[in-house]
Design brief:
globular, alpha+beta, Beta Polymerase, domain 2, binds magnesium ion, Poly(a)-polymerase, middle domain, 11 helices, single chain, 10 strands, disordered C terminus
């Protein structure tokens, strides 16, 4: 049985943001903030001025380095995904909420020429896309008397609190020592699987984060903790009526899997089962290299380190050795 703890730890190092990457992403958020502020000051001086708040994986330390792809000119594209909340906080006694489209239009206008690519108007945000592949999502919130609502173009204003969510996760991980790494590994798995099959739409990073937290399995090594967390997620989701992912914070109790089509649900369960099966196969292997190859082939790709071409010591070779010595005839007493 080859325990791939070292390989998992190095895989996590490979996918985790290093400090200079973190700083560079933080700088892009800062630049956007400046840009939007300036636009509102100049173009909407009498309206509520925007405030900003980080959210999403960046605040939970679960952002991953995406697999590098290349554009038609051969330039490297790294699809970093950042979220940056834009808040409009109502002044006492005033009602400035108005239509969702109005806020979307203004935020869009404020960042329209920020990069060489046009921003994308999404249902829940304005997305600013950079030429190196990174994008910053700008969800828009309106806050009135402590109630925060997200401007959702399909569902109207919906109560939401992204800060509550990352605080929930950051609190959970103080008890769940390997949770952060498990979430990153799941996201890297999603990245690889989707890149190999563009029809596959796995759950979002946000949804995977909830699933990993709710089904966390603690173990001495990351290999086992990851595999058994995946097993718990799979077992729970594949039970009758078990296919749910409940939002733990405002709007608390919402099943974020509710809108999944049957195809999307079945596809997810199928690839999740294949991940679990490969984790089990790797576990049964004695040779580290062979075990790691199983995970590299269909689940994580070549970012997962290749193990050493040697057998697990204690469980195979040394076992055979100790068995063979056990059959050596003992010397008779007295000699
Ligand atoms: Mg995003």
């Amino acid at each position: 049985m080859a325990v791939l703890n070292k390989e998992y730890i190095n895989f996590d190092k490979e996918i985790k943001l290093n400090n200079s990457r973190k700083e560079s992403l933080a700088r892009s958020r800062k630049d956007i903030k400046k840009k939007i502020r300036k636009w509102f000051k100049e173009n909407k001086p009498d309206e509520i001025q925007p405030k900003f708040h980080g959210q999403g994986s960046y605040e939970m330390n679960t952002t991953i380095n995406p697999i590098v792809v290349y554009d038609e000119d051969g330039n490297p594209i790294r699809k970093y995904d950042l979220d940056y909340g834009v808040y409009f906080i109502e002044k006492e006694g005033e009602d400035n909420k108005q239509s969702i489209q109005r806020w979307h239009n203004w935020v869009y206008a404020s960042v329209e020429d920020h990069t060489s690519k046009k921003p994308i108007q999404k249902t829940t945000c304005v997305r600013v896309v950079f030429s190196d592949g990174r994008h910053i999502d700008l969800p828009i919130y309106y806050k009135k008397e402590e109630i925060i609502e997200l401007a959702h173009k399909a569902k109207d204003w919906i109560e939401s609190d992204p800060k509550e969510f990352y605080e929930w996760f950051n609190d959970e991980k103080t008890q769940k020592y390997r949770l952060e790494a498990i979430v990153r590994c799941l996201k890297a798995w999603k990245n690889f699987r989707e890149l190999n099959n563009s029809n596959l739409k796995l759950p979002s990073g946000f949804e995977l984060t909830i699933l990993a937290t709710e089904n966390y399995y603690d173990a001495d090594n990351l290999d086992e903790a990851f595999r058994e967390t995946v097993r718990k997620i799979y077992d729970t989701l594949s039970e009758d009526w078990g296919f749910k992912c409940i939002r733990p914070t405002t709007p608390k109790g919402e099943d974020v899997f509710e809108g999944y089509s049957e195809t999307r649900r079945n596809n997810f369960l199928t690839v999740l089962k294949s991940l679990l099966d490969d984790c089990d196969k790797a576990k049964e292997e004695y040779n580290f290299k062979t075990a790691s190859e199983i995970l590299r082939k269909n689940q994580f790709g070549s970012r997962f380190p290749l193990g050493e071409d040697k057998e697990e010591e204690n469980k195979s070779k040394s076992l055979t050795r100790s068995l063979s010595t056990a059959f050596i005839k003992p010397k008779p007493y007295g000699y």
